[in-house]
Structures are given as C-alpha cells and as structure tokens.
Specification:
The protein is mainly alpha-helical and 59 residues long. It has a domain at 23-58. It has one helix at 26-57, and strands at 3-4, 11-13. Strands 1-2 form a two-stranded antiparallel ribbon. Strand 1 (3-4) and strand 2 (11-13) form a beta hairpin.
C-alpha cells in the first residue's frame, strides 16, 4: 500500500517492489561493451567533424 501525506490525497511513494535480477554471459557483456565503444567512437567522430566544420567556417 502506498503511503500518503497527512491531510492529503496524493501519494508520496510506492512500496518497494522486488527486483528481478538478470544474469548475462561474459560473451553478452563483451558484445555490449563493443557496441558501446562503437557508439562512443561515432559520437566523438561526429563531434570532431562538427568542430572542424565550425572552425573552417570561421576562416
């Protein structure tokens, strides 16, 4: 049951629900890290290209 503030009808917080923990294999972790590394690389490349384009436009 959710708790309420005294004199109020609004709910302050919900009771804690049990979390279901999920285990993943080492290979899945490696795959996720590779995907993350690729996304970070793509973001950096995009940031560098926009910075370069901005610098060239200032010339």
């Amino acid at each position: 049951m959710a708790s309420k503030r005294p004199g109020s009808d609004s709910v302050v917080c919900e009771p804690k629900k049990k979390c279901k923990h999920m285990t993943i294999s080492v290979q899945q972790k490696v795959d996720l890290l590779r995907k993350l590394e690729l996304k970070v690389f793509q973001c950096r490349a995009y940031a560098n290209s926009t910075t370069l384009a901005h610098q060239l436009s200032m010339i």
